[in-house]
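Assemble and predict.
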Amino acid sequence: MKPLLPVGEIAKGVLAGDRRSVAKAITIIENNASKAQELIASIYPHTGKAHIIGITGPPGSGKSTLIGKIIREYRRKGKTVGVIAVDPTSPFTGGAFLGDRIRMQELSTDQGVFIRSMATRNYLGGIARATKGAVKVLDAAGKDTVIVETVGAGQSEVEIIKIGQTIVVVCAPGLGDEIQAIKAGIMEIGDIFVVNKADREDANKAVMDIQAMLQLNNKEKKWRPTVLKTTALTGEGVSQLIEKIEEHKLFLEQELERNTSRGKAESELAEAIKEKVANSIIEELKSEGKFEEFLQKILEKKMDPASVAEKLLNEKFRKQVQKCQN
Amino acid sequence: MSDKEKINQITRERERWENTTLPKWMGQRPERKSEFRNHSDTLIKRVYTPEDIKDLDYMRDLGLPGEYPFTRGVHATMYRGRLWTMRQFSGYGTAEQTNQRFKYLLKEGETGLSIAFDYPTIRGYDSDNPFSQGEVGTCGVAVASLKDMEVLFDGIPLDKVTTSMTVNGPAAMLLAMYIAVGDKQGVSREKLGGTTQNDVLKEFFAQKLIIFPPKPSIKLVTDIVEYCTKHMPRWNPISISGYHIREAGSNAVQELAFTLYDGITYVESCLERGMKVDEFAPRLSFFFASHNNLFEEVAKFRAARRIWAKVMKERFHAKNSRSMWMRMHVQTSGCTLTAQQPLNNITRTTIQALAAVLGGTQSLHTNSFDEALCLPTEDAVKVALRTQQIIAHESGSADTIDPLAGCYYIECLTNEMEGQAMDYIQRIDDMGGATVAIERGFFQKEIADSAYKYQGETDEKKRIIVGVNEYTTGEDAAIPILRIDPKVEEKQVAGLQKLRRERDNRKVDEVLEELHYAAEKDENLMPVIIEAVKAYATIGEMCGVLRKIYGEYKELIVI
Amino acid sequence: MQSERKIRILIAKPGLDSHDRGAKIVARALRDAGMEVIYTGLRQTPEQIVETALQEDVDIIGLSILSGAHKVLFPRIMELVEQKGLTDVMVFAGGIIPEEDVPEMKKLGIKEIFGPGTPTEKIVQFVFENLPERT
């Protein structure tokens, strides 16, 4: 059996920008909760330098191709780039097909680029549980820019705002229904909107549709989201997109001392507490055998999951209150 | 008795039979399977009767050979007049080696040539491109410049043969080389006969050897059609191909529907260019696969002709009956060949070839039994050619036209396949056409699902493949393997480098610049490509210019 | 927190041929068996394949080739696997590879070669049984 390197070694490798260490670190974050925590703890002081871009949008909008072009443009400017491309895990088999990188594959041998595909492993909201940690790894490894591509299943993929600093929402003309999906789910989170495949005749209409929606939505925001056109296939409009991203980055930096970074830290802390608490309760219930007991009830359709959760929590907290009183 | 009464009587008789005779037999000798299905998943009945074709109108649905709707064949005399063209797809190693193979096949009675190019050529790379490493001459012949094409046809007069070229991305370049060889031999363009595959649409979802994105790819196709319509009346500028769709894993109905839809798309593209339908449509040709289910395949070929005739007449308002012809080339199916017990492949190929002949093909390639293992040896290809000759001269299949017409089963299947294909065509129309369907991964998904299903059925032995999942023997008898000498690559690269030293490079730069300019201006590129080829510009150089302008296509992966 | 190891596998197609029917069927079967399958599309150079395996930290690389260029491309791939230190990665291959080339390919470190007609379940089973140990 070949033992994996100790976490400390891997963390050291990450900080030195060693590619294999980066890859191993992300695997640890995906697979091994306790080691993941140790790893993140040791790289955390070295994070916060990368600019993190979230890219989301409905299927068929050309996100991956666009990301390929964005990477190229950053590389031309001498910046290094990391990418996390998320695809869904099948709820039935637990397997996943990860094919986003094909659009970026010719960049895979560029030592200034690191691309990692990631399956959601049934985490909801368009990213994976490990995405956040993986971004930190790429950040700590010295990538100037880290791009996260969400699943792009056309559902509300809003988790990305917890990770990304600049959120780019991509859509394409002729996807009619999908514009509705954007309206319903991800309109609020976009800092920059991109109408890709702009060489199509109905591109301008899509731009106007989005602009109209934005006017309704963003009256009181300090950053006014804009709508840009790109043709990812030829790269047209990509340098303007980068300029806009950079502009937004500058805006964020100016806002830095104010709420933005604090807000992010706040939500990160809240998330971390939530996850810890929830998991420890679940573990406890499992060890008590309660979890299995009620799981059976759900399977037999005697109770629904929400009621079970409520009942269990009530019991648990009553117990704890009692403990305190004793 | 009226026809209706006759049918009613048959129905009564059948019901009686089902209640009396059949149960007795079912008790003693029950059926082998609970249901029988063909490759397209169509449920096959126990027995077919006149009931199943009671709505068939002979003149409307079948007609006579050489007449609308051409179900029975595109020629009035069919094989009684002239046998199909026996055209073996071949090419390996250097141009010299393939030239020898061509001459061998012609000597053995082949009646048309068909060039298999190697992957670097097909992908528009020169033999010395890093991508070409290990691939030069391995799966076809390496043709980098006019020099190679000259060698390939050395001693073969172009006015005495017709040649098919399986090439899509760089089709314009290779056609230009053929034209240039013709010029050198003193054979004018009007006299050149043959086919360029030049079907880019199926590349995006089936064959995937394409170089450029859809828009410029279709532009290049249309350039060739336009050029040939004006200058090369005997050339089929495009061979709309279902073969690769089938090989990628589709079933027979999907092959039929998607191929015809690609055809519709090309017609629309030519009409948009301002051409008249009756000018170019007579030269459109088709290319299908033939699999082991004999009846399904025969029905497919017949349905294909009938649908195309109707589409051309009703959808595109063609007037010339030749525009409604579907002329086809058929290749027996590569993906049905097995590496296990390879001699069994001779039998498979025979059945498939027979289906193509009973289906009325104009041209046929038969696979060699060793092709699941390597490119065919000379002995293997000879057996494949002999298979066609035996069908032609010994089986009696070529003695009468469309011999299976009127067979209840065949006519019923033909109708069913037409209906199923038309449903697909309607769906793709509703989606917004072929390019939208490609972008959405529709074709890809349909094909991938069929392929996966087929494999699953084979794994579970619901589908028996002799020698693979049943009737297996431990060790298979070794058969001779054709090996491509690695020296081929060295030799080819050396030849190319010599050419680069010796040709007039100033002239080459000039023509490449002209090509660049013409491509940017969106002109028909054929004339300038012919000039470039004659200056010995290479495939890689010409495609390189176009790659810069058009970009390169990345497939949409659907599993 | 979930602590679960998932098998990650790269299905790669070196060479210029475009016969991806088999590669995709295998990819799909492995996915349906619960693995995370990375597929990079057609025509990957040895450098791209090995670099992808590294970045994706896969347990296994499955190579599919039908162009006949395996004798040139496989040695190069295995050389890079070695060079980049992917010692905990298992490599297998499939496609049209003549029987007489198999020993030579295996000597390079390719664990198994599956010819045409191999049932997918056999490949899935092979992957499960030959999963490199990792802690």
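Residues 311 and 324 of chain B are 8 Å apart (CA to CA).
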